[in-house]
Amino acid sequence: MTPDDRALVDRFLDMMAAEAGSSRNTLGAYRNDLDRAAESLRSLGGASAEELSHLGAQWAELAPSTVARRSAALRRFFGFLVDDGLRKDDPSAALPRPRFERPLPRILESGEVQAMFEAAEARASSSELSAVRNLALLELLYGSGLRASELVSLPRGVVRPGQPFLVVRGKGSKERLVPISTRADVAVAKWLEISPGGSIWLFPSGKSHLSRVRLFQIVRAMAADAGIAPERVSPHVLRHAFATHLLSGGADLRVLQSLLGHADIATTQIYTHVDSARLVELVNARHPLATGGR
Question: Which domains does the chain have, with CATH numbers?
């Protein structure tokens, strides 16, 4: 990447941080995608529509999701250049638009989640420090649908007695309210009673908080304790379980979008695949044509 292109990318990322509130991880992903795209172009900022039209062939060996992500990064980048008067035309219409099916989320049956809770509760009954912490982690993952990064970075005072919700800072530093169940409230309270003080984090580790990698390892170990294949379970799978089981129980899709912190309802709609049988039953029971005697 040329020095001029590097300066444009830096300006673009500054805008994304200041105006769009993008997180550090998001900014890093944009930079990486733009760096990779620049390898196929003489000039990133000055690329023509014709040059961009050849990227599809150059990226033919990449996964469709990778091509789609790079194209999206470039479209956002060129839109910024035009908006800021750094170039007059937007060539992004020539970018490849791969068609691919979004993978359905891996899910756990409610019985499997219950088995994980039973195993975790049995271990926590000993009041062993790590077991009590792990039960609190599980309650918040499945009971509140938190992302792994949101959970491990919770401040120590985030759970308040009698307050049935948490204020969570999610992607793009956007705050949202998430519910906390009575069970989770009790589990966290027990953890706070015995956990070492002196840290600002709810789940401290060393001088910082529990890492996402360590949380991943803990969740897989808890799955194994419950007799579930560890490779089937992760913090994100438990977030999916929270969403799918809520939807199956009758939750409104817009409410679910808010609870999960999705910016786009299309992201939330992927969970509707798990409950097609309930939707068919609802149409058959409630639709006028189904009950009108035709």
Answer: 3-94 (1.10.150.130), 110-279 (1.10.443.10)
